[in-house]
Design a protein that fits this description.
30 strands, 28% strand, 6-stranded mixed β-sheet, 549 residues, globular, alpha/beta, binds zinc ion
């Protein structure tokens, strides 16, 4: 195998040189009848997870070792490697968030990422932070469908030449960024239909660059059989919209799942098991779950213009499973331990320490679980949703508080609470805002906000107010236990994200009685917990304030 590759590479040079002046159309540089190996590696939805978790899982130092080992293995076989990210580097781990994800971008540089697309969470910070991050990165940020002042804000694609194979990687970002990104920061940006942009761009690339392989690094989500529900269309719709086979591969993100199929359904995939990627309209679609839990590895061969997937794997990065030993649950590695790369470890350690010093100080305690699990809080009122809305309401001396469930990112366990716990629940740095409205205005507002669909981040958590929701309308509204008076004025709080129109809430920032308090949500929650510790969870338990019919 090795000998064959060496012999043929001499021939490649001869033919490539011979072709160079033969035609003005870009000529392929690969050798007829030679089989090449090309491995595409990918991750997505890093969300601040530069460091390993408390169980020693994941982390960029181990990811570096894994990827370096694969590179060495592929190189020894005469092949080449391309490493791509499906975006959402930002937001989710306080140590990273407090440092604008600098350790994450440094880690990606050291691991040697070739390109990343922009996820919606790249717009959680102001655009100057994004520009700073672009400066830190040694690799390009690509997205074809983000526009500012009518022009593309980023390069639409990047061309790679691997052993004579010309690979175009195009970047695409979910249109939902306009809805779920922070409106304060993206007001001037346009997120155009990525399907339309991709189709036009691929046609353009074929006419100009004539690539051998076209890959899309996307942050659009994988929705089974293209059933995207209330989300913007994702990777499946993208593949189906294009001409069959125009796109070889989609390296995805955003829906945060391992895309492993069993026929037309998702397989019941567990770490370490085989994973079959989705195939739609001649395009492979892959996604490596989230947080650096896996590195996706797609081994292709390339011969006479044919790009063929030979093997696909989601490789766990020191993931563990719980087993019972002597009646006790212990966590054990699913596969052989991947050592942490010493250079990456040493480089990132000071960032981790700096972040932890500030975060691990106890600020209070709770006598029970404060429920913020995504699947619960987006479907029901919870004690944590109510606690947050109460903290906001008290800070602004409001009559009631509204909190979008999409802004509640985790639960808080019983026992000691640290600032880190609070920041894990509220990582976005939203500002508490309030508005004074008449009862009649409040009713119009609630008819939109109170009726947001379950199982979405828009689903609202409430404090200080009760109502019945039925047939897309609210009724029986009572504030502080009294029926709402349409003529009276009420004050309520709302995160800045929603006040600016996020989650499809009515935009109230232009209301004459709108106030931006300047208080950051996590800081308000931290203060409230400090002042009211120990938190008695029963005080915040939802009873029948919200009735959904
Ligand atoms: Zn996302």
């Amino acid at each position: 195998m090795k000998l064959k590759n060496i012999a043929l590479s001499a021939l490649t040079i001869a033919i490539a040189t011979g072709c160079a002046t033969a035609d003005q159309q870009p000529q392929h540089e690969w050798t007829q009848d030679k089989e090449y190996n090309l491995t595409i590696l990918h991750t997505n939805d890093n969300h601040g997870n530069f460091w390993q978790n408390k169980y020693g899982e994941r982390g960029m130092a181990a990811r570096a070792t894994l990827i370096n080992n694969i590179r060495a293995e592929v190189k020894a076989e005469g092949g080449s490697v391309l490493l791509l990210s499906g975006g959402d580097i930002n937001t989710g781990v306080p140590e990273s968030d407090l440092q604008d994800a600098e350790p994450d971008f440094i880690g990606m540089n050291m691991i040697g990422y070739d390109a990343m697309t922009l996820g919606n969470h790249e717009f959680d910070n102001s655009l100057d932070v994004l520009a700073k991050q672009e400066g830190w990165a040694n690799f390009p940020f690509i997205s074809a469908n983000i526009y500012k002042d009518g022009k593309r804000m980023f390069d639409a694609y990047k061309i790679f030449n691997k052993d004579g194979i010309k690979i175009a990687v195009i970047g695409l970002t979910t249109e939902d960024t306009a809805k779920i990104g922070n409106p304060e920061f993206i007001g001037e940006l346009e997120f155009r239909d990525p399907k339309v942009e991709a189709k036009a761009l691929i046609a353009e690339l074929k006419a100009t660059e004539n690539p051998d392989v076209i890959i899309a690094a996307t942050h659009m989500g994988h929705y089974l059989n293209g059933d995207n529900g209330s989300n913007a269309p994702g990777d499946v719709q993208l593949a189906r919209y294009l001409n069959e086979g125009d796109l070889d591969m989609i390296v995805g993100g955003h829906s945060q799942e391992p895309v492993c199929m069993e026929g037309a359904e998702y397989a019941k995939f567990k770490p370490g098991q085989d994973c079959a990627p989705d195939v739609q309209n001649g395009t492979y679609i892959v996604q490596a779950h989230e947080w650096g839990k896996y590195v996706g590895r797609a081994d292709y061969t390339f011969k006479n213009g044919e790009f063929t997937l030979q093997a696909y794997n989601l490789i766990p990065v020191n993931l563990k499973k719980k087993i019972k030993v002597d009646g006790k649950k212990v966590r054990v590695l699913i596969q052989d331990e991947i050592a942490q790369d010493p250079a990456v470890f040493a480089k990132l350690k000071p960032f981790q320490e700096k972040g932890q010093v500030a975060l691990n100080i106890k600020i209070g305690q709770s006598d029970g679980l404060l429920q913020g699990d995504r699947n619960v809080v987006r479907n029901n009122q919870t004690n944590l949703g109510r606690l947050i809305a109460t903290a906001h309401m008290q800070r602004a001396k409001a009559d009631f508080g509204i909190m979008n469930s999409g802004g509640v990112r985790a639960s808080i366990d019983a026992g000691d609470i640290t600032y880190k716990d609070v920041l894990t629940v509220q990582p976005f740095g939203n500002i508490i805002t309030y508005v004074d409205m008449t009862g009649a205005e409040v009713m119009d507002y609630l008819n939109v906000v109170g009726t947001k669909m379950k199982d979405s981040g828009a689903f609202a958590q409430f404090a200080g107010i009760s109502m019945t929701v039925a047939n897309g309308q609210v009724s029986n509204v009572a504030i502080a236990g009294k029926d709402i008076d349409l003529a009276k004025t009420y004050r309520f709080t709302i995160p800045s994200f929603n006040a600016a129109g996020g989650d499809g809430y009515p935009k109230i920032t232009t209301h004459s009685a709108f106030v931006n308090t300047g208080y950051v949500d996590a800081e308000v929650l931290k203060e409230y917990i400090e002042a009211n510790s120990p938190i008695n969870v029963a005080d915040f338990e939802p009873k029948s304030e919200m009735v959904y019919n």
